[in-house]
Design a protein that fits this description.
mainly alpha
Length: 61
């Protein structure tokens, strides 16, 4: 077991802090942006499809 005086002893704490920061960036930064982008892209795709082929429903009169 390493002593607390050795430089490698703080490695697990530093790694844990880095993992926590990475998690927070992903959870509250990257993934919300990706989610909004995916929903926006889907909406744009549906909008373009309806411009080309018309709105859904029975054929017009």
């Amino acid at each position: 077991m390493p002593d607390a005086d050795q430089p490698g002893a703080s490695l697990p704490r530093t790694r844990r802090l880095n993992e926590l920061i990475t998690f927070l960036v992903l959870a509250f930064g990257i993934w919300p942006i990706v989610a909004v982008g995916v929903v926006g892209a889907y909406g744009f795709l549906v909008w373009m499809f309806q411009i080309v082929f018309g709105p859904p429903g029975p054929p017009g009169h």
